[in-house]
Design goal:
The complex is a heterodimer of chains A (about 800) and B (about 350). Chain A is an alpha+beta fold and about 800 residues long. Chain A contains 24 helices and nine strands. In chain A, helix 7 packs parallel to helix 9, helix 22 runs antiparallel to helix 23 and helix 23 runs antiparallel to helix 24. With about 350 residues, chain B is α+β, with helices and mostly antiparallel strands. In chain B, strand 14 and strand 15 form a beta hairpin. Chain B is globular and about 60 Å long. Classes of the chains: A alpha+beta (about 800), B alpha+beta (about 350). Chain A: It is found in: Cell membrane.
Chain lengths: ~800, ~350
């Protein structure tokens, strides 16, 4: 808050005229020992910088993106080890763009790809499947019983006869749609990954694995000849390599993170330009940017010391901290500049500014911290870590920006020209020239006509926005991996694979948990079959897969393939035989001791309505059929996890708004000691929140994990503006000035700062909009919108609302 | 705030425990006692047989689905069925009276052209039935060593539970009919299914081979089954007697007309006989896939269908050639029949498929 104490701060031209014993304890201990303080700061910066450089690692963890204590997620986490089919595997599709798979050249490439993957560290070789795997077999019922062999003829040598045999075997094996595309233009390699590398005992490095896929497969086979892999582009050659799967997704996310880190440079550069434009003083601009960067170094150092890693959410914290740092540091500079311009010595000016703005700065940072702190209430580890790391950053800002910045300025000062310029701008403002015209325009909003107009427009916007926001959806709305953009290579590959193979990548799994051998129980299988059937009734469920499918098929097989025996038989021997066969052909359908089997529904999309409906069906079935020795547990699979996340997000979105607004209102009541002022401060934020939701509807962004922090930060940081403006306005009003004059003074005093804060904050986050990671882009756009709109709301609606509510603040 | 959250969590836990307690009360309902669930998907889901009830089509399939159509297969209604066991075969000797059989030894009856069904028998009663029948015969004729063996078979059925599927059903009229199934399971009725009599001793099948199909051509009634099993009903002896089989693999079905009989089965095998099975001629299908269904088309030709969905034509009065017919799409066929308008209606793992009259 811009607490106005200028009256007690006379202009002092020489340090010798200044009594160093004045000021509070903190000021004296810092400013009277400046060299020691600077040395300490430098040492800490070195230490934390070293920490950041040596310890910081990128570790996007999906586990942390899911709500850990949601019951469905707990069910999943408890049983994850048993869910092989839903486990970690990548699907590599090798496509022949100039023909079909019955092409010796294609098959040779496929063989090389197969061998390359087979030898890649981390691949669970035993379960790898492709046309070249001996384990991929065909079987046929003959008069003598079963007959079968590997799909790829043992003696394959590329002759037309071999190819014909392969064609026959593919049909006999029934792998069209699973390993072979339905148009025969591509085939798939299913590559399961080990949790830990058998050689090193370490977890798989997904980034490295993803690089191997790019360099050893794509560069080798897709980008042949002249073409070179660049970004997301596809090769133009005969062969295309398409890869989907968790490991690839993580790899792409890390690539995205690296790209986003580069955006930081752009954010720094744009902040630099903005401040330089504002101050026209190079040295103080460098100082502002330097101090803010120092805050980022500290934050990263502390965070990595505490063992946190960078993930797609926490990578955004440095941007925010930098932006907040820049906006606070510029205010310090603004203050010092005005004092120096009036002739005060730079050390004294620095101490004055400290006195004037330290409490105000801490208050503003506290209100930011409230925004972050509220995020702790969301039961999703990435968001909680975001809250912790951002709170650390805010705490760091107290040292770097509120203390270090004025100390550094006391050494460096500002250029005389810049100080002069600041004076001229202020003079222009009072003479209604330059920026003064803008302030005059804003000033008019305190008059009845303009205030009424502004409030009516705001009301119309609010109502319109609210109507639109009613269509706000929960969850991710686009197809493919929601973390990446719809047109990313990964999602294009995903769309290709969904289009040419039978199964979608949106899997919703219900886990059936029994005692050992329980999944072979006739009743369990019948219930699994009933559950699958219930799920299939929903039109968005494409198909279901469970052990029952295998059991039915194997039973029919043991009756010479008679379709009438495609059934679940009560005979335990028959069920045991079926399971034994299934454990060879489809081991992913149940765990080793047969105590857990998933029923997997493949969904046409992962829209919230679909997930809700499927959850409702599964949940009702689970409640109706669970018993002591057989539980139906929701939920696993990508769609299952998303469904659980949606449930938490929907709840969190409401509570978050409640908490953050409660906090902000309490904050305003303390700061202004007037409920009317609190209303004036909060209503513009409410309008922004409503419009933000409308914007989400317009842009097709659903409420998801990534939008929760946006809402909290938008409100938590957005209140800053009102704090600056209103506190000054109230100060003048309480001194007896009429509203118009008080507001005019407030705007003249802090309007420039409000504008600067809004622009620097927006500049800090807008670069995210170009992030290859979809939710970061969404966050960037929404946060920028909130920062800018909050600023406009404050400048326009505060005077307008004040006209109605705060004409006589002493009455309040 | 924290304590409130904990309290809420506690309350949630308590609710969950309560729900769990309720859930534990839920008891498993057997497929023989659980009525089939009406579903719009039934027409696209696995169906195993289709037949005519007068003008109407009736199809049966997995999960107790029975569907009927009055517009030659264009639209279907789902019948009320008291069981959700998989149903394998259906036959209507009259336009009103029909029987459907399936897994778990279930026999269903309809007297309203397939709109509603009642259960006449299920696997839980068959063992008792067999044991009683042959025990009575054994005590009536102590010298015959066969009866105790058949009685023991009944005892085994009781022990193994309701796990024997019927694979086919055929009724001569509204009173007399047969249901056949795996391991030489065969029951006959003379009172429209009020009571059933085991016929295991009348099939000349000591190995207990599966009886896959029962069909009539004119006055002759045949059984076809596993490992080349072919039997013909001998009214004089009142038993099914062996017919010379040209093939040692399994037959999945029979079709014919007076004076003509086709038997089809594993790996594309089709045999044709003009003398009620005394001599056979193989028809070359050129396929290695099992032939699983057959019907007569509007011209009176035979159409044979495979497990992979191929369609073959054999001219009536068959000359030796089977002709593979092209189709727009192919999906596995488990049952076929001719609709009232001459169209062919096929059922299989993907539900109903209608081939219009050419």
């Amino acid at each position: 808050m811009g607490t106005i104490q200028q009256d007690s701060m006379p202009v002092i031209r020489h340090v010798r005229d200044f009594d160093p014993a004045t000021g509070n304890l903190l000021e004296r201990s810092v400013f009277n020992h400046r060299p020691l303080f600077v040395l300490c700061m430098a040492l800490i910066t070195l230490l934390l910088g070293y920490m950041a450089v040596t310890r910081l690692e990128m570790r996007p963890s999906f586990e942390k993106m899911i709500p850990q204590s949601q019951p469905y997620i707990q069910n999943y986490l408890e049983n994850r080890a048993s869910l092989r089919g839903l486990g970690n595997s990548v699907r590599v599709v090798v496509e022949n763009t100039e023909g079909d798979i019955f092409d010796p050249e294609y098959l040779e490439v496929l063989k090389q790809v197969n061998d390359e993957l087979f030898l890649t560290p981390g691949v669970d070789r035993a379960w790898m499947k492709s046309l070249w795997s001996p384990a991929v077999r065909w079987t046929e019922v003959t008069e003598e019983g079963f007959q079968g062999g590997p799909v790829m003829p043992d003696t394959y040598s590329g002759t037309p006869a071999d190819i014909e045999l392969l064609r026959q075997n593919i049909n006999r094996a029934g792998i069209v749609g699973s390993l072979v595309a339905s148009d025969f233009k591509s085939s798939m390699l299913i590559v399961p990954l080990l949790d830990k590398d058998s050689a090193t005992g370490q977890g798989i490095d997904y980034h490295q694995f993803s690089q191997v896929l790019e360099e050893k497969l794509r560069d080798q086979y897709e980008f042949t000849g002249a073409s070179v892999r660049q970004g997301d582009a596809e090769g133009s050659g005969k062969i295309k390599i398409r890869v989907i799967g968790f490991a690839k997704l993580i790899g792409d996310l890390i690539d995205g993170l690296i790209q986003v880190m580069m955006f930081f440079a752009i954010a720094v550069l744009s902040a630099f330009c903005i401040i330089l434009l504002y101050t026209r003083c190079l040295r103080s601009t460098l100082l502002v940017v330097g101090c803010s960067l120092m805050a980022v170094v500290w934050q990263l150092g502390i965070v990595s010391w505490l063992g946190y890693a960078i993930d797609p959410y926490s990578i955004l914290v440095p941007f925010l901290i930098f932006a907040i740092g820049v906006s606070h540091a510029s205010q310090k500079m603004n203050g010092i500049m005005q004092d120096i311009a009036q002739g005060t010595h730079k050390l004294v000016a620095a101490r004055y500014t400290f006195r004037r703005l330290f409490i105000a700065g801490v208050t503003a940072l506290l209100s930011d911290a409230v925004g972050f702190a509220v995020l702790m209430l969301i039961d999703i580890p990435v968001i909680q870590e975001l809250a912790i790391t951002a709170s650390i950053g805010v705490a760091v800002l107290i040292f770097t920006t509120l203390l270090m910045m004025p100390v550094a300025l006391s050494y460096v000062g500002v250029s005389a020209k810049a100080a002069e310029r600041a004076l001229i701008i202020d003079a222009h403002a009072t003479q209604h020239r330059g920026l003064g015209k803008l302030w005059d325009l804003l000033d008019r909003f305190t008059t009845a006509k303009w205030a009424t107009g502004a409030v009516l427009v705001a009301l119309a916007l609010g109502i319109g926005g609210f109507m639109v926001s009613l269509q706000l959806k929960i969850g991710d709305l686009d197809s493919g991996a929601p973390e990446l953009r719809e047109d990313s290579r990964y999602n294009r590959d995903n769309a290709y694979i969904t289009g040419h193979y039978a199964l979608s990548s949106d899997m919703f799994a219900v886990m059936i948990k029994t005692g050992p051998e329980g999944c072979l129980n006739y009743q369990t299988l019948v219930l699994a079959d009933r559950l699958a059937w219930e799920l299939q009734q929903h039109p968005q469920v494409q198909t279901t897969v469970s052990l029952v499918n295998a059991v039915r098929q194997i039973t029919a097989g043991s009756f010479e393939g008679n379709p009438k025996l495609n059934s679940i038989q009560r005979n335990q021997d028959m069920l045991n035989y079926a399971a034994q066969q299934a454990s060879v052909n489809a081991p992913e359908l149940f765990n080793t001791d047969c105590s857990l089997m998933p029923v997997i529904a493949y969904l046409a999309d992962h829209k919230a309505e679909t997930l809700d409906a499927v959850v409702a069906i599964a949940d009702k079935f689970a409640q109706d059929n669970s018993s002591e020795d057989r539980q139906f547990l929701l939920a696993a699979g990508s769609a299952g996890i998303e469904a659980a996340t949606n449930i938490v997000v929907r709840e969190a979105n409401r509570t978050m708004l409640l908490y953050v607004y409660t906090a902000v209102i309490i904050f305003c009541l303390i700061a202004f000691r007037s409920w009317r002022a609190a209303v004036v401060a909060v209503l513009p934020l409410v309008l922004t929140s409503i419009l933000c939701e409308a914007l989400m509807v317009y842009m097709g962004i659903g409420v998801k994990v990534a939008t929760l922090p946006v809402i909290a930060l938008g409100v938590g940081i957005g209140i800053d503006y009102a704090l600056y403006l209103l506190s000054v306005q109230l100060h003048f009003q309480r001194q007896g000035l009429p509203l118009s004059a008080a507001y005019k003074n407030a705007v003249a005093f802090t309007g420039r700062v409000v504008g600067l804060v809004g622009i620097t904050l927006a500049a800090g986050v807008i670069t995210w909009a170009w992030s290859p990671i979809k939710f970061q882009a969404d966050m960037g756009i929404l946060l920028t919108f909130m920062f800018v709109w909050n600023m406009l709301g404050a400048l326009i609606l505060i005077p307008a609302l004040s006209h109605f509510l705060l004409r006589n603040p002493r009455r309040a | 705030m924290c304590s409130v959250r904990q309290y809420v969590r506690l309350a949630l836990c308590a609710t969950l425990v309560l729900l769990q307690a309720v859930a534990q009360a839920a008891s498993y309902v057997d497929v023989l006692d659980l009525p089939a669930k009406p579903s719009a998907l039934a027409v696209r889901s696995p169906l195993l047989d289709v037949t005519r009830a007068g003008e109407r089509l009736v199809a049966v399939g997995q999960r107790g689905h029975i569907l009927y159509s009055d517009d030659a297969g264009q639209s279907w209604q789902q019948a009320a069925v008291p069981v959700s066991a998989d149903l394998n075969a259906v036959h209507f000797p009259t336009a009103e009276q029909g029987w459907a059989v399936g897994n778990d030894g279930v026999i269903l009856h309809s007297s309203d052209a397939g709109q509603s069904w009642s259960k006449q028998l299920d696997g839980r009663a068959i063992g008792e039935l067999v044991l009683k029948h042959y025990s009575a015969l054994a005590s009536a004729e102590p010298g015959n060593e066969h009866w105790p063996l058949f009685a023991a078979e009944g005892q085994r059925l009781i022990e193994e539970g309701a796990d024997k599927p019927f694979l086919d059903v055929w009724f001569a009229d509204a009173q007399r009919g047969y249901a056949v199934g795996v391991f030489n399971l065969i029951l006959a009725t003379r009172d429209g299914g009020q009571s059933w009599t085991p016929l295991q001793d009348r099939t000349d099948n000591p190995q207990g081979l599966h009886l896959n199909a029962i069909a009539a051509t004119g006055a002759a009634l045949y059984l076809a089954g596993e490992q080349g099993l072919l039997r013909k009903w001998d009214a004089g002896q009142e038993r099914f007697v062996a017919v010379d089989s040209p093939y040692q693999g399994s037959y999945f079905g029979l079709i014919g007309s007076p004076g003509e009989l086709l038997a089809y089965g594993l790996r594309g095998h089709v045999f044709h006989s003009r003398d009620a099975g005394q001599s056979w001629q193989q028809l070359d299908s050129g396929l290695q896939v099992s032939i699983t269904a057959a019907a007569r088309d509007a011209r009176g030709d035979y159409r044979l269908f495979t497990q992979a969905g191929h369609m073959l034509r054999a001219g009536a009065g068959a000359d030796a050639a089977l002709q593979l017919l092209p189709q727009a799409q192919q999906s596995p066929v488990a049952g076929a029949t001719q609709a009232a308008n001459g169209a062919l209606v096929l059922v299989g793992s993907r539900g109903v498929r209608v081939l219009p009259v050419e």
